[in-house]
Amino acid sequence: MKPEGVAMVTGASRGIGRAVALELAARGFEVVATMRDPATGADLPALAAERGGRLSVERLDVDRPETIAMPRGLRVLVNNAGIEGEYLAVEDATIDHWRRIFETNVFGVVETTRRAIPEIRASGGGVICNVTSSSLLFPMPFYAAYRASKAAVSAFGESLRTEVAPLGIRVVEILPGPIDTDMLAKSSRPAESGANESYRELADLVFEQRKQIGPFVTPPAQAAAAIAEAVLDDAAPLRHGCDPMSVGSLEGWRGASDEDFMWGFLGLFGIARPEPTTRR
Ligand SMILES: NC(=O)c1ccc[n+]([C@@H]2O[C@H](COP(=O)([O-])OP(=O)(O)OC[C@H]3O[C@@H](n4cnc5c(N)ncnc54)[C@H](OP(=O)(O)O)[C@@H]3O)[C@@H](O)[C@H]2O)c1
Prior knowledge:
By secondary structure, this protein is α/β, with parallel strands linked by helices. It is built from nine helices and seven strands. The protein has helices spanning 15-27, 44-50, 95-122, 144-164, 182-186, 200-210, 220-232, 244-255, 258-267, and strands spanning 6-9, 30-35, 54-59, 74-79, 126-131, 169-174, 239-240. A seven-stranded parallel β-sheet has the order 3-2-1-4-5-6-7, sandwiched between helices.
């Protein structure tokens, strides 16, 4: 598609959303950068203007449907707003914990998207871009609620795609790897699951593994450039990485069997694949 018309980004106050809003403005879209507290994005219009772009800031809290308004001329929606939560074992994660994460990561995306579709259709078509996570490709312990929320968005996007493709609306899913944002910085801690004696050892292993991530961390601006490319490329597939780690992981996932991919992942924790036993 041509970078024309309005692009709206959720969670644009910081991190990936902020970088994507600036990138889409630099590419030529008229950007509406939405966020819970517009004061946090007060510098964005001037930053966009420095690169020749147009950007305005609006309040939008994806947990509060009364704040979700669509701009006229909408052609691109980037569902970026997201939260992570504590890293808990399934037996210790309360339903409130699950509900909090699903409220923002799933229901927020669904509500924003269903309101965006008629506007994008009225503009003659466009793109809905959902930011999920490359953690979907890895069965990480203690990430069940977060990963399940992103998997829900992934399945939602697949079905949505079949509904809106005939309307000229393309659905794109971005599965970021480690991007240098507040969310990633906060994730550098021992998993809360370690408070339960049964999971302490695994929590320690996960934390040790987490410490190895440094060389793979990618700046948000670099991820945003890849996200803009995916939005603009009409021939692009549904799923995209936006940094070297997620691009490589997605490639490996596409090319490997479920079993090979899982044992390759567990190998990172020093857990070896057992020799195959002969069935009688
Ligand atoms: N960074 C990574 O390594 C990574 C990896 C995989 C996936 N992701 C995904 O990428 C997306 C952006 O993550 P990030 O790393 O940029 O995170 P971040 O730095 O924590 O920023 C999260 C953004 O989401 C916003 N947000 C949270 N709840 C919201 C709500 N109810 N309504 C509207 N906005 C809300 C935050 O707004 P406030 O400023 O108001 O809190 C903030 O703008 C998320 O969906 C995340 O799951 C990130």
